[in-house]
Design a protein that fits this description.
By secondary structure, this protein is of the alpha/beta class. Helix 3 packs across helix 7 and helix 5 packs across helix 7. The protein is built from seven helices and eight strands.
């Protein structure tokens, strides 16, 4: 727990103690990738660990507006261990964990999103496919692909790791800097989860 930011700790506590909240409002965990020494992708002046925070906050806001309790694994520039990201969702009783990232490529023409999931988990597989359909609806090419990574495995929280876009593609870079698009992404992920719950 020492890696919880004060705000994340507050949100987790609030979700746990609000009367009826845990029963009445499903909880999602939004996990902004990287943080601290782990910078993620660097594309020109864009740094993944920084960009992904406002994107994640907007996505969380859309889940809150749709009636979900939302816990962020971080909201500041701190490192969070992969196991802690997973554990946060499982211990909070989350219905879903969205691990959010962005990509780069040497070829600026490369574009699109990628969604990774645990193929042994039917609920996560269904969520990943639903996420892909919704992102395609926003005009993205989407690769949906299973991965054997331990942090994708959960018995309780549907889990999707989403590489939202290529920061080295000019059009996708522009979208990823647009707050309106961050909220579109949020509504897309809400729609994806609603489709499989
Ligand atoms: Zn990343």
């Amino acid at each position: 727990m020492k890696l919880l930011t004060p705000r994340a700790a507050f949100l987790l506590a609030a979700a746990a103690v609000s009367p009826g909240a845990a029963q009445d409002r499903p909880l999602v965990v939004i996990d902004p990738g990287h943080g601290g020494d782990e910078v993620g992708v660097v594309a020109g002046d864009l740094i993944e660990k920084d960009l992904i925070v406002p994107v994640s906050l907007a996505i969380g806001a859309e889940f809150a507006a749709a009636g979900y309790d939302v816990v962020f694994t971080r909201t500041t520039d701190v490192a969070v261990a992969w196991d802690d990201r997973r554990a946060r969702a499982d211990s909070a009783g989350a219905v879903a964990l969205f691990m959010l990232h962005a990509m780069q490529s040497d070829d600026p023409a490369d574009a699109g999103a990628e969604v990774y999931f645990d193929e042994s988990n039917e609920a996560s597989s269904a969520l990943a496919r639903a996420v892909a359909r919704e992102l395609e609806g926003l005009g993205s090419r989407v690769l949906v692909d299973p991965r054997p990574w331990p942090f994708l495995k959960s018995g309780t929280a549907r889990t999707a790791m989403i590489e939202l876009a290529h920061l080295t593609n000019p059009e996708e870079r522009a979208r990823m800097l647009d707050p309106a698009f961050h909220h579109q992404l949020g509504r897309a992920l809400v729609a994806a989860l609603e489709r499989v719950r």
